[in-house]
């Protein structure tokens, strides 16, 4: 997360009273390509955001509006309204059990669909497991919700081509996720031999038109944390595209100018990334490159929050879990970034068009209205006797 002073993310955590420890690895998600100044007088607020945060125990009432008409920007005195096609979230962690029930309503209120990550414990490695998880998500949705979870499989060295066929036949599985073993949360079962044991699976994914979602970092301890994405691009991603040129690849967690340039060098085929979050904060030149890419109108970039909730105790400890819960504030912040870049006319394509076009899905037909208005982010959300701390917790965004 970058504040208006571009402070490092751990300082942002400490500003919320969270204890600071030595080596804390943080997946900085949505905010990391954003220079946010919370003293700005107004912030963009979705009309579906939110009559109440409908979590068990605590609920925070916030301003709300209604669905809009065709896409437009409307100014009236100090407020502006922006009507866009309902967005989708192409990278989302919903977890399972009590935590799933606690957080799914936030995503359902903001987004029409979401690509749901499979790194549960145990991971979602089969079509049967994905279908069971899909049912669990549907049962946890608020009554009357039209939110559609799009499922993924967790790639391992033992995944078989026949499992990819079953995934396609399921009608609910749209992608396979590559986690290098040991790279992030619940990735211990991830891939160790991509070009060997996984090659038949990648070939079958091409035949089934199944996308590969990539967590783009090497895990070699001899590679500096700040260089892991660049080394991944050079030693894994580039050879992957060369060996499997017809494979559809989404590179997630793009954090460097090097990765952006590689994406832009792939004309039309192969790589189709979405830039929305960072594993580790990089230099300002990289943030500027990311902002320029996502606000450029380039159809190869699309929204994915990587919202990743953890209970408070698992975050506020000597080795806090990577991942930030940003679903309650995501649309507001995306709109703010595009506004500061003078690119509000390109926001709708990034949030609502480029993703479904890549996955071959119809665009949503309903609209949401964003109104530039002051509001305050809840300090926490309670569930099953525990707490989740959202991004920008307790901040008065009206200045």
From TrEMBL:
Q: Name one GO molecular function term.
A: metal ion binding
Biological process annotations from GO:
'de novo' pyrimidine nucleobase biosynthetic process; pyrimidine nucleotide biosynthetic process
Q: What's the domain of life for this entry?
A: Eukaryota
- Domain annotation Amidohydrolase-related: ranges: 89-369
Record EC number: 3.5.2.3
Keywords, ordered alphabetically: Hydrolase, Metal-binding, Pyrimidine biosynthesis, Zinc
List the Gene3D superfamilies hit by this protein, alphabetically. Answer: Metal-dependent hydrolases
What the entry lists under HAMAP family is as follows: PyrC_classII (MF_00219)
Q: Which family does it belong to?
A: Belongs to the metallo-dependent hydrolases superfamily. DHOase family. Class II DHOase subfamily.
- What this protein is called in its record is dihydroorotase
**Native organism:** Heracleum sosnowskyi
């Amino acid at each position: 997360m970058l504040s208006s002073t571009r402070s490092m993310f751990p300082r942002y955590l400490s500003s919320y009273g969270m204890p600071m420890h030595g080596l804390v690895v943080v997946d900085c998600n949505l905010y990391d390509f954003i220079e946010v100044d919370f003293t700005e007088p107004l912030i963009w607020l979705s009309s579906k955001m939110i009559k109440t945060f409908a979590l068990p125990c605590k609920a925070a009432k916030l301003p709300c509006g209604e669905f809009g008409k065709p896409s437009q920007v409307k100014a009236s005195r100090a407020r502006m309204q922006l009507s866009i096609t309902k967005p989708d979230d192409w990278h989302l962690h919903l977890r399972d059990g009590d935590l799933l029930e606690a957080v799914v309503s936030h995503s359902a209120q903001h987004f029409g669909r979401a690509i749901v990550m499979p790194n549960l414990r145990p991971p979602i490695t089969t079509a049967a497991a994905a279908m069971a998880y899909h049912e669990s998500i549907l049962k946890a949705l608020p009554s009357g919700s039209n939110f559609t979870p799009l499922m993924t499989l967790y790639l391992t060295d033992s995944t078989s081509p026949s499992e990819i066929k079953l995934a396609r036949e399921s009608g609910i599985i749209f992608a396979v996720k590559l986690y290098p073993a040991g790279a992030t949360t619940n990735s211990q079962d991830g891939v160790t031999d991509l070009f060997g044991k996984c090659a038949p699976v990648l070939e079958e994914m091409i035949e089934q038109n199944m996308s590969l979602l990539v967590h783009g970092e090497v895990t070699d301890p001899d590679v500096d944390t700040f260089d892991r994405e660049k080394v991944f691009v050079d030693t894994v991603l580039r050879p992957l595209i060369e060996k499997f040129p017809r494979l559809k690849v989404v590179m997630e967690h793009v954090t460097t100018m090097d990765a952006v340039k590689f994406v832009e060098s792939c004309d039309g085929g192969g790589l189709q990334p979405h830039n929305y979050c960072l594993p580790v904060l990089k230099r300002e030149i990289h943030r500027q490159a990311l902002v320029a890419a996502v606000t450029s109108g380039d159809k190869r970039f699309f929204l994915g929050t990587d919202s990743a909730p953890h209970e408070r105790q698992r975050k506020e400890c000597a080795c806090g879990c990577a991942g930030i819960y940003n679903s309650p504030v995501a649309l507001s912040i995306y709109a703010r970034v595009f506004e500061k870049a003078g690119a509000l006319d390109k926001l709708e394509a990034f949030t609502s068009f480029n993703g479904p076009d890549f996955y071959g899905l119809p665009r949503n037909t309903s609209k949401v209205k964003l109104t530039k208005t002051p509001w305050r982010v809840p300090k926490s959300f309670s569930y099953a006797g525990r707490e989740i701390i959202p991004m920008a917790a307790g901040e008065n965004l009206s200045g």
